[in-house]
Design a protein that fits this description.
The protein is built from eleven helices and no strands. By secondary structure, the chain is mostly helical. It comes from Mytilus edulis.
Length: about 325
Amino acid sequence: MAEIEDDKSADLTRTRGLKLIWLTKNKQLKEAKSLLEEEVDLNCKDEDTMYVYEKRALKRCQHAMSRDLNPNTPLLSQLEKGHVIDSSQSSLIMRQSARKDKVLCLMDILFEQEDGVCIRLINALKLDYPWISSHLHREFIKEKTKFTREFNQGLSNVVNKQISPMVLGPGAEECPVPTTSKESLQCVETVSELLETFQKLNYRHLGVDPIEVCNMALCVVLEEKITQYKKTIDNLKEKLTKLKVPTNNIRVIKQEILNEKEAAKLLEKQIKIKDSAISHLEYQNALLKQKREALRKTRDMSNDMCAVCNSKCLRRQSSFNIYK
C-alpha cells in the first residue's frame, strides 16, 4: 500500500509541475516563486483532501498515539479549541467505551480532516502530550521535506523523460534535479521554453499562423489539418480516376515503348558500325596521303637527275662541235 501511495504522490507532483508552467510563461515569476517557497505542495492532496505528507506523518505516529493517548474530556476540549475536531466529532468519540476504541475513532476522524490538521494537532498536544507532539512534528517535517524532494524529482522527470526528448530529441541535455526553490523555478522556466518551442515547431510544420490559432488547442489544429489533407487526397484520387487510361491502351503503349527501345538499340549498333567504317577509311586515306607524298618526292628527284643528265649531254655536244 505504501508503494502505491508513493506512486500516486509522484504522479500528483508531476501534475503540479505542469500547472506552474503557466505562471512562468505569463511572466508571473514572483507568484511562481512564492508558490514554490511557501507551499510546494499546493493543490496536491490525496482523495480525502488531506496533504499526502500529513497523512504519512499521522500514520508514522499512529502507534505512539494508540499507545499513549487518552481521549478524555479535557483532551477533546483542547482539540476542539485547536480546531482539530468539532463538537459532533467529540461526542462521537466520547460514545466509545474503551480507550483504544476512542483512539481509533479519533484517528479515523483525523484522517478525514482537511489540510493543516497536523499543525493544529501538534499545537493542541504540546501541553498534555509533548512527546507525541514532538514526534509528530519531526515526522511532519521529514515527510514534507521528502514530498518536496519527490516534487522536484517529478518535475525533473517531466523535463528529461517527457518534454525534452519530445521537443529536442533523445540526445538532449538533461535538467538536474532541483534542490532549492530557485532551481525549481528555473526548471519550470525550462519547461515553459520547451513547450513554447514545441508549439512553434508544430505551427511551422503545419503551415498555420500562430495568431489565427492562438485560442485553439494543438490537437484541434492537428485534427483540422488532417481533415484538410484527407480532402486534398480524395480530390486527387477523383482526378486520377477521371484521367485513368484503359488497360488495353496501356498495353499497346507499353509495347510501342518496347519497340521504340529496340529500334533505338539497333540504330545505336548501326551508328557504331558506321563510325568504325569511317575510322577505317580515315586510316586508309592517311596511308594513301603518305604514299602520294613519297611518290611526289621520288618524281622530283627524278626530274632533278634528268636535268643534270641533259646539262652534261649539252656540254659534251658543245665540246664535240668545237673539236670538229
